[in-house]
Amino acid sequence: MRQEPFIKAEQLSYRYEEEEGGSPVLHDLSLEIQEGEFVAVLGHNGSGKSTLAKLLNMILIPTRGKLFVAGKDLTDENMTEEELLALRKNIGMVFQNPDNQLVATIVEDDVAFGPENLGVAPEEIRERVNRVLGEVGMLEYAKHEPHRLSGGQKQRIAIAGILAMLPNCIVFDESTAMLDPVGRREVMDAILRLNREKHITIVMITHYMEEAALADRIIVLDEGHVILDGTPSYVFEQEALLKSCGLNIPQCTELIHRLREAGISLPGDCVSPEQCAEMILQSLNLSK
Amino acid sequence: MKSIALGQYYPAQSILHRTDPRMKIILTVLYIVCSFLSKNILSFGLLLLSSLLLVAAGRIPLKIVLRGLRPVLIVLAFTAILNIFWTKGDHLLFGWQFVQIYAEGLYAAVFMMIRITTLIIGTSMLLTYTTTPIALTDALEDLLSPLKKLHVPVHEFAMMMTIALRFIPLLVEETDKIMTAQKARGVDFSTGSLMDRAKALIPVLIPLFVSAFNRAGDLATAMECRCYHGGEGRTRMHVLKLRGADFIPFILVVALGGALVALNLAGIGYTMK
């Protein structure tokens, strides 16, 4: 029996009001995301990927089409305040700039912000804050001031703040874009752990191919609709299509493609530098 | 710029640091009343002694407290001079043409200086040095919460304070960055007339405002995503609880007030009206 998808969009369209007459940011976008999946959404600037994220927890309301999250119809106009809060509790969102999403002056107070809004009892908030700070490896910074932390640390605090609401799904809207390579790795590790160990559904909006390669599935958006949807190795095979919408494939995949074009036989899929090295090594051993 | 300190909070382990911030706000008000209760040399002496005891109770080096008084030195000097030359009394000490100094004037000058000094030491020891800005905000929200019945947006004010405290270091850092960027393009902030220097700040203020508004928009979205919907139905992780020990300083300050009034009755020396 097939499970009901966690997120389901049908013919979804969105147009920003101030741009009457202009083309919609999203049009006729349909997709399904299953519970527990790790999906990367790729697309160049203006492809509508951030708009899609904001539709998922009703920061924006679709202009046309249907959107279901956990069986709830988000286009239902009779939605109550409680249902809206339940949705936002269920789908957490981590944004790009870590500084602009932390509210409190002390790390643990910030993590407590979400559960406080939800009216959770004080003892339970305390327990949750300690647990989620441990999960993102920031427990020792509980009493620190956020503005003294590094970008990667701040972003992990933001993730902890979302986790404290006990969501089923977390949307990352280019959450690594403003970080240095070290911070990026810290945040990616945390994301992968959440998906593998806690089975939280992850929707990761990004334009880093290397990060998208870590997902179970990649959805490529261009001009407001889905042009590619599949596993990373499938998506990266479509080099020409990706390049036509302004995206590049990971360097390691491109290297394998070029070697194949040069007539070297390299069987298998390649989405990570490790796989690439492995494949080249095997081919060298064979030709000896 | 990263080392910017908010307020004057001085971290230490002391009775005053541990006291409930709401109690400290009440104590501050009471202490201000006490400083106005003093009338004669005995009660002013006790007042001065009490402020020194406060410094000891807060475990803050006297040097730091005195440094905090530096900005009011001019006010102190001005008050002293005014009182010395303008207070008329019965005991003329020195007279030359229109300059007349009375013993009462000297007393009044000393008393006023003690009053201002203790006022500042008292409020800073009870509040700014020993309470974090955020604890202060929480305490104010709690103390003013009865006003919610009158539709005063107490929670919203406290939230605004918290966010302001959070963003001050960020905006300071950003100002620094923008100024450096403008300097690199040849803007001169340090020479020229006052008008020129004020004008040179315009290219700093405009980008700063634009970025502050962008940040505000982002933060509002992030807060909505974290289920913020005003103070209604909101709980707190830190619940302020009055302990028995919090009443000890309260009793002491009330006793101080009583003692000051009693000492005023002793008719020694000059008594302020």
Structural account:
The complex is a heterodimer of chains A (288) and B (273). With 288 residues, chain A is an alpha/beta fold. Chain A has eleven helices and ten strands. In chain A, helix 4 crosses helix 5. Chain B folds into two domains: 151 residues, no CATH class; 73 residues, no CATH class. Helix content of chain B is 66%, strand content 3%. The relative contact order of chain B is 0.17. At the A-B interface, helix 2, helix 3 and helix 4 of A face helix 8 and helix 10 of B.
Oligomer: heterodimer
Task: Return the structural class of chain A.
Answer: alpha/beta
Under CATH, the homologous superfamily of chain A reads P-loop containing nucleotide triphosphate hydrolases
Counted up, domains of chain A total 1
Give the helix tally of chain A: 11
Task: Report the portion of residues of chain A in β strands.
Answer: 15-25%
What is the average per-residue confidence, as pLDDT of chain B, rounded to a whole number? 88
Any idea what the shape of chain A is?
globular
Instruction: Write down the domain tally of chain B.
Output: 2
Cα distance spanning the termini of chain B? 49 Å
Mean pLDDT of chain A: 89
- Major β-sheet annotation of chain A: 6 strands, mixed
CATH architecture of chain A: 3-Layer(aba) Sandwich
Backbone CA Rg of chain A: 20 Å
